[in-house]
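note to self — DONT lose this again. spent like an hour looking for the file last time. sequence + predicted structure for the chain T wanted, 329 res
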Amino acid sequence: MDVPTWLWLTTVGLMAGLLAVDVFVIGRRPHEPSMRESAVAIAFYIALAVLFGAGVWLFAGGRYAGEYYAGWLTEYSLSIDNLFVFVIIMARFAVPRHLQQTALLIGIILALVMRGIFIALGAAAIAEFSWVFYVFGAFLVYTAVKLAAQGHAGSEDFTEPRLLRLVRSRLPATGDYHGVRLLTRVDGTRLITPMFIVIVALGLTDLLFALDSIPAIYGLTKEPYLVFAANVFALMGLRQLYFLIGGLLQRLVYLSLGLSVVLGFIGVKLVLEALHTNELSFVNGGQPIGVPTIPIWLSLATILGTLAVTTAASLAKVRRDPAQAPSDG
């Protein structure tokens, strides 16, 4: 794709404006969004994502539109999986319900920053080193195996990262929340609040998920513009989705398994493409290998089919055996 600078700037500006409205207008008051507020916001953001893909189709063709839609669906699914960990963090640190919206907003902003950095690094690595697809592919296959073995995340599965344990042990903190403040003074001493610790936990989670999501989408498209757009649209509305489907989220018992299939599929696709354009001297003498590559239509169909089967199987499993659904608390 030949994306002019003005289109990049316009796209970034419009998306930053949408985020600013969500943060400084809709989210200016700590509260729990109503079901109607959440549903309207999610429908709006999904409609924007779909319309953006239609615009790509109109001006750049079906191939790039297919790459965008496949990337968006994959990133959106990974973002929903991210919500599982957000739910666990909120419960683990007993974040008051009316403060969770602010914590989620900050978490989503951190996720955008993390993914932006990794998008730039990924684009630079791909442009400079063709063999990076071997690394991305192997990493995604490894992640898929680990995710399949892990299964559905529960509160008992959350292990605090070492950095978070260091923060909790070294920095004096208050025992109670002080609204959305990260720092406060008690008897003249500056202390961190539990909200500070929650934000650190969300930031570390975002970093780990960025490590998975960026290689995954670069396995579907090599266009940084589409990678950026798919990631931003995948994060829009996550805050409202958290409140809208909190109970349903816990019932997607096969989501991790479905995501492992998607990531494994993309990992294999990356390795095949790396072999097809091979330049490593110790692999086939540095010559490309005539292996088949996976077309984008097949990638899109596989992703859609896997997510549909995963959702239907999860809901059917919980309907037959309600005890399989993790408790909301």
